[in-house]
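Dear colleague,

As promised, here are the two records you asked about, laid out in our usual form so they can be pasted straight into your sheet.

NAME FIELD: protein one
SEQUENCE, THEN STRUCTURE:
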Amino acid sequence: MSTNDSFNSGRRGFLRAGTLAGVAALPAAMIGSACAGPAAETAATGDDALPESIRALESVAHRVVPITVDERRERLARAQQLMEASGIDAMFIGAGSSLVYFTGIRWGNSERLTGMVLTRSGDPVYVTPEFERERTLEQITFGHDVRGWHEDEDPYRLVAQVVRERGVGTGTLAMEEMVPFFRSKGIADALPQMKVVDAWPVTAGCRRIKSAAEIALMRLANENTLKVYEAVWRALKPGMSEKSISGLIGTAYARTGLQGGASVNVGKYTASPHGSLAPQTLVEGTPIIFDGGCRADGYTSDITRTVVVGEPNDSIRKVFDIVLEAQNAALAAARPGVAMGALDAAARKVISDAGYGPDYRYFTHRLGHGIGLDMHEWDYLVRGNQHLLEPGMTFSNEPGIYIEGQFGVRLEDILYVTEDGAGLMTPQSPSIDQPFG
């Protein structure tokens, strides 16, 4: 359930502003001393200062198998099929996760237009600032038609020129949903004879079903996140601040070779699903929530774990067990052909029947969201969503109970739909006493 993405400007992401900026590069001296409490944060230096559980982590970067050029070509062919079926003559995709998905080009979104024009047949045409031509060519693996525009020129006219060259200046132009309004308006104004529509039937139509290669990358990222969380849990000490714990997570990820981070909330602040910016200190017997992930070739994990240092009280144990039962109920309900909203209903019924209802009273958010290159993608496991599950879809499965002013518990693992049911990419958290089994 994490918030805005620091790794790209896609739909949603997981590094909490203010708390996590730069933690992956936090010096080992600061992280190591954090384990002894905030007062010692500048005392220790070097690798030896890190907790043993963090030092034991090994790089998994060598296990990352990137998406192949052939698979990206298959994606473009699928996009063109969906364009045909949807009556779309041309599509514009700007910087962001969909550009990565179809072409492999990783490009930051700015006021300068860079993007791809795709029509129903043929290779894509790339539009980019002329001074960025070489950097664009470095990332292109197929379809080397690059059109550059100079700083005193109108890039929208160039996009319109490309579309007209493809013979579709009077048809339907689909705009990828994350293209900023000022840019979509500029392109629309340059193509007044075209009808501009949302490209989601194509982008979501391709991206919501994951290939075996995508599932493998997501599984690796999620497995890595779980190992990082366990290593950090074993290093926790009373008196640590939420920032020092976040820093420890960043350092742990750095040792695994995958970029990642997590938001951390402690004690009463766990009663808010996205926590608080207030300073927090770890107290023995109170819950801590980790929520975040890492990336493998751009594909993200998203795991939440609720843990305790020392002995949790009976109330925390009770709530933890209810949330785990709710997560199991959602997993049991998942199979192809089932409405997405049914999974939310299954988890919510468990929580309400246990006395933490009705509706959103204590379980205050939807059950889950789609996930892939963006942490939050199509579709959503939420009440009323009648879209049907299909094999290859991936979602967070993250029920929670939040008791205002006291504590909260949330458990999150990534669910993937199979031909005859569903599974989770990581083992569940079995108990509050042994959260990693």
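NAME FIELD: protein two
SEQUENCE, THEN STRUCTURE:
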Amino acid sequence: MKVYENIEQFYQRNKLDFIPKNSLGHFNVFKRAKATTSQITYNKRDYFKITLLKGKIKINYADKTVQSDNYALMFSDPLVPYSWEPIDENQGGYFCIFTESFFSKFGQIRDYPVFQTNQNKVFILDDFALNEVEKIYLKMLEEIKSDYIYKEDVLKNLVFELIHYAMKIQPASIVNLEKEEKKSKIYLLFNELLQRQFPIESIYQRLELKSAADFAKQLNIHTNHLNKVLKENTNKTTSELIAQRVLQEAKILLKHTTYNISDISFCLGFEEPSYFINFFKKRENTTPLKYRKSVII
């Protein structure tokens, strides 16, 4: 099962010393390599990231593609997969990474448009804007090394400076994609949104996106269009794909946990345990309890 890359795995992948998150979440800031042709590929990540990209680069996120010839500011979050392809070797910039819990009691970071699924996430910078944004990152680098007792509040304010600076300037123009390429990205994003809800690791965890309409709203497209794209790619409807993944998770929970049927029903988004039992029985010709007894030795 494909799992999100978490903060610790990010440090391992980049061969960095891991800084354990504190009770207020995690934050760190880095300089990008000055010369690189390495690509960032679509991948699952459970943290937020704001990146100043210097150099000619093609950026893909959701079903959109933009190209920056000089400087761009990009906002990444767990809901939207992204990738970028350096076009030349003259790359550089900065980036900061943080968890949602870092902003606990300090504001709802997801409420800002740059971290919402259907909004612009890439902003092209001119020389003046580059200078202003670099100043913010340099303040972050200086602050994170300080011993100031309230430095985390300062860092949060600097993140908000980046957010508000970006929202005041014009977003990057979207490159027109071929029709088939756009459909492929819609399918990819749907699948990312679906898979990100799993695995269920606590009885307090619950599916947020449960219906075709839920996914269509997140993707800012009509439900019928989503159904059509998925049908063309998988020969299954949106509801069938959701049900297939929910059933898979139900079997995992029944086999590998001691959660009772009510808990599993809640986690998987059913309003009543009876709805879950009927759902399971319709597809497996047995009840969840009988299935559990048959697979546990």
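A couple of things worth noting about protein two: The domain at 179-295 is CATH 1.10.10.60 (Arc Repressor Mutant, subunit A). The first strand starts at residue 27 and ends at 31.

Best,
R.
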